Amino acid sequence: EAKKDIIRASRSPVDDVIIKHFKVFQVGVTTPVAESWKPQDMKLKNYEIAIKNVCNKVKKQTNGVRQYVYQMKEEMISIYQNMLDDDENEDIKEQEQINDGIEYADDKKE
């Protein structure tokens, strides 16, 4: 549990963006959309550099329009998938604790 807390605390804001939009980054997201998700306290250039560590910037043609998209590197998919799974498991545990607390409170009322 402590190890997971340390890992979660050491994640960067860019990691959080990528985890939140994991499926989209896997398929490919246009650069303007990805840039709109930039954390407010981060400069665009630093954000682009951080994204390029995880994604490739690929030129794609969609509906006759050429666009750059950020597509997650193959070797990064499993790493972020594990982070995503850990987050989902944590959310489930938190929800169970909330539900247990509600049930406990209901039992006390009766």
Detailed description of the structure:
With 110 residues, the protein is an alpha+beta fold. The protein has 6 helices and 3 strands; from the N terminus they run αααβααββα. The chain has helices spanning 2-9, 13-20, 22-27, 31-36, 44-54, 74-109; strands at residues 29-30, 55-62, 65-72. The protein has a 3-stranded antiparallel beta sheet.
Short description:
With 110 residues, the chain is of the alpha+beta class. Helix content is 68%, strand content 16%.
Q: Stretches where pLDDT falls below 50 for ≥5 residues?
A: none
Q: Helical element count?
A: 6
| Rg for CA atoms | 19 Å
Instruction: Name the CATH architecture.
Output: Orthogonal Bundle
- CATH fold name, please? Arc Repressor Mutant, subunit A
Shape category: elongated
How many strands in all?
3
Whole-number count of domains: 1
How is this fold's topology laid out?
Layout: H1 2-9, H2 13-20, H3 22-27, E1 29-30, H4 31-36, H5 44-54, E2 55-62, E3 65-72, H6 74-109
Antiparallel strand pairs: 1-3, 2-3
Region (Disordered): 88-110
